[in-house]
Structures are given as structure tokens and as C-alpha cells.
Amino acid sequence: MFPQRLESPDAYNIAKAMRDGFDRHYRLFRTESARAKHRFETADWHDQQRAQRERIEFYDLRVKECVRRLEKEFAAGKQPMELWHEVKLHYIGLLVEHHQPELAETFFNSVTTKILHRTHFHNNFIFVRPAMSTEYLENDEFEGRPTYYSYYPSKDSLRQTLVTILESYGLQREFADVTTDVNHVVHALESRLHKVKLRANFQIQVLSSLFYRNKGAYLVGKIINGFNEVPFALPILHNEHRKLFIDAALFGEDDLQMLFSFARAYFMVDMEIPSAYVQFLRSLMPRKPRAELYNALGLAKQGKTLFYRDFLYHLKHSTDKLRIAPGIKGMVMLVFDLPSFPFVFKLIKDYYPPQKDTTREKIQGKYLLVKQHDRVGRMADTLEYSLVAFPRDRFEDELIAEIEKFAPSQLEISDRDGDGKQEVIIKHLYIERRMIPLNMYLQEAFDAGMQDERAQQQMERSVIDYGNAIKDLVAANIFPGDMLWKNFGVTRNGKVVFYDYDEIEYITDCNFRRVPEPRNEEEEMSGEIWYTVHAHDVFPETFGPFLLGNDAVREVFMRHHADLLGVEFWQSHKERILAGHVYDVFPYEAKRRFGQAYAD
């Protein structure tokens, strides 16, 4: 059939209003991201953290603004479906020369589904797949910055080239000793290039914007020599005299994976072409999904869009079934997974045992707190979805029965789209990276036996890093609440990460107390708590019996983290945070720091 002509002025005007709504969103998003440079230069760490929190809300605010405008000016919700077909086609036309077309398509989806009151999984008027290619998309404007710059040093000019690269970012704060910093970087680089012949194509490529997060700015790029490409990042920090210095040199995919971890806060990056940044970053970390890279850049809605597309693609090319996730079942969250897919799905139960004094709204508030907070590499990021549809035949019956028992309000089984196939629709869902629960990881070591050297090392590493995880959380003003091993997981690279958020609190809201001395024999022999406990009271001395029942675990824990069982540790951190101190939590090991390495 010959294509229908686009004849409706309203359709064009609605499409243009939607694009204008997106352009306003990205303009504000980019402006806030660009201000991170000034906040870094002036060491305004509290404002940097505030901006990181508030920027997360930008997207939903702009979607609501756009919906209100469309309803007011065009009565958009009352327009016929034929007009919405035209709206989409006009919108595609408006994105032909656009610099963020993939983000604009996702914005269209968000606005359209709110106006048409449909889930975006059953909507013919949205971008289920991208319509516009972002390949080779670049800023061709005369004064526009390219995505990355290329430098071609020789061995003799390498130091000067690195100085030139640092100067190109125009930081309005001087380096304490740029010569020493560059010498450290060259020394680290030469240790990787030792006896390697520099080929004709030897070059350094660096992204044109620094990556800002918390108290650091990160220069990100790669070194190309012959057929080899080496990703690298240079963390730039302030010293005690408010001058800049390069703290470390990170090399290789694993180092970059840690820097861009799903358990860390989002970066502030000034990007004209975000898809080009993602493409460059994927050349550094080919195993990291594009969805996680968009998340890391603060573009979480685009990350959600890509994640769901990846999930649908995986469902199409797999046959295993969704099941109740292995491990100890939670009291508040019902968790299930697909064995072949590296994520878990969590929904809030309708009913909680008496000891869990909470509500659905409180739990959602805790997850939002984590989303907006600095996760310091120790709290898993979550993707939050509403009205998620799964094929019914991909569910084990046991899992359906579990949801019907514990979360019936969140479950619908129907054929909404009328294609003759039943679907399971979950009304509200969190999705997280799958990790090995720490209690199961420790049990693996115990089962192998402590006489096995590898099992002993596995146990020691995980217990030590468990304590380090808690200390990192404390530095970020987070008290985990429930500190049991089962609420922590072990990532692919062996890092311990917290993932159960229904009891977290700010350290500054907690009251850390010693257990009172019993006043008589009856209180001393009582199996019940005989002293008064108020909300937010925490007794660190009581952690031991719940955590350290295994003698081998206790010995390692007490050797490295005995301070966690004392009030002094918690109270001193609380007082420093209340006094305005912002702790450093680095996305790399202390031994990688130049100052530490050369001191050693």
C-alpha cells in the first residue's frame, strides 16, 4: 500500500513540542553536568553531592512538564490513534540531524505512555527498537568539541604530551607539582611498555571532557600501539593545600570496570554526543553492557531502555525458566532470577513478619535513597520498572505460587495484547546485578575445608572485604541496618557489595550505644533484652554473636575489623560527618596510589 500522507498540523506540532521538551531536559542535564568542573575546582564537595542527587530527578520532572503542555495545548490524550502514528513519523523526521536521538526516542516513549495510559511493553506508538542510527554521530559544528582528541608522542616527547593533555582541560586550579605527577604516570606507563617497540600508529586518545564524581576528576582514554589498545584513567584530586595532583594511573579493562562499576555513583560529564562517549567507553570495556555505561554517565532512563531491549533479546534466544532465586529467602523482598541471565528481579512483598516494622512506601524510599546516594562501590545500583510483562510459559509454577502467596497485589496473569498468549505482569519491580550471596560464598569455602589453601584464602578475602565494605558504607554516611552475611554479595572480581536496603539508615540518624551493665542477677541471666531500646538505637557490641559463630571467621574478622564491634568507631565517624567532613573512598586499591607506592 502506498504510504499515507502526513497531513495533520497537530501531529507535527505535538511531535515538535515533544522534541522541544526533550531538548530542554538535555540542556538542563548538560548544564548541571558541566558545572561539576567549577565545583571540583572550588572543592565544593557538598554541592557536588547535592547536584548528583538532584540531577537524577531531572528526567521525570521534564516528562511531567511535557505531558502537561501537550494536554493543555493539544488535548493529547483525546487524539485518535491515527494521529499518533503521524506524530511518531514527524518525530523521526525531527531527529535526523539531532545529536542525542537515542535519548530523544526514549523521552518520546516516556511521554507517550503517560498520555496514552499504556505500558510501554504493549504500545504500537513507541520506539521498541531505535529508529535513528547513532553510528559515526559527531559534532560537526565549527566551535564544537570532538568526542576525543588524539596525540602522537615519541618516547622523547611523552612527558610534554601528557602536560599538554592535562592543560587542555583548562582546570582553574594549579597542580602542586605537575612534573612529578607526569613522571609517575610515565614510569607506570613504561612498566607496561617495557621493551615494546613503538609502532607507526603509537598514539594517546583521551575523551574531551573529564569525568567528575565526588572529590575526584578522571581523565579517561586509551593508548594505541600497533594492534594493541590499553585503556587508562588518571584520577585527579586535591591535596591538603587545595592544589591538584594525579593520584594513580589505572590501566586495563579490569581497572576501568572498577571505576565504572554498577555499585558506584553516576559521573558528571559534559557531553554533546553521549552515544559517541558510550562507543568510546565500550572500546575500553567491551564486556560492559551499553546499558550500564549510559547509567554510569547519569543517563539512567536510557540505561533502563537498553536493559529491557537486551532482556527481550535474551528471552528470544533462551529457553530456561524464571525461578525462585537460590539462597535464604528475604522477609521483605521476593527475589527470582533467570539462570542464564546475570540479573535478579526483586518485588516487595505484601506482608511482613512482625519484627519488620515497615511499609511498601518506606521500602521504596530506601531504594530511592540508595539511587541518589554515593554508593562508594559497595551498594548495587537498581533499575526500577512498573508493569513489566513476562511470557507465562517462562515461569516455573513454584515461582508463580510464591508470588500469589506473598505478593498477590503485584501480580496479574492475562492476555492484555490479545495475541492468545498469557503473560505475567508484575506491577512494580527492582532489577539488580546478580552476585553470589556472601553466606553461600563462605559456605563454599567451609565445604571445601579450611585445610584447603584456596578455600582458606577465599574465606579470608571475603571476610576482610566484608569489613572493608561496611567501613566504606560508614564513610558514605550509610548504616546497613541488617549486617548479616546473606545481605551482601560477591561480584565477579571478588568484591563484597551490599544489596538489601530495607533497613538502611544514615549514620548521622543513628544513636550508637553501649549495652548497659546489668543491675542485678536477674537482668544478667535474662535471655531477653531488659534495657530500653529506642528507634535508631544501635549496639555494636551485639554484632558479634550474629556474625562470628565460626571460629575461623571470627579470628580473621577480629584481626582486621575488631573496631566494628566498638561504639567508638561508629560514633567518631558520625561526629566527623556531622562536622562536615567528606571521606575519600577510592575506586582503586590504596597500593595503586602514587604517594603510597613511592612511600612503600
UniProtKB/TrEMBL annotation:
The active site is at residue 381. It is found in: Cytoplasm. ATP binds at residues 325-331, 346. Keywords: ATP-binding, Cytoplasm, Glyoxylate bypass, Hydrolase, Kinase, Nucleotide-binding, Protein phosphatase, Serine/threonine-protein kinase, Transferase, Tricarboxylic acid cycle. It catalyses: L-seryl-[isocitrate dehydrogenase] + ATP = O-phospho-L-seryl-[isocitrate dehydrogenase] + ADP + H(+). NCBIfam families: PRK02946.1. This is Isocitrate dehydrogenase kinase/phosphatase. The lineage of its organism: Bacteria, Pseudomonadati, Pseudomonadota, Betaproteobacteria, Burkholderiales.
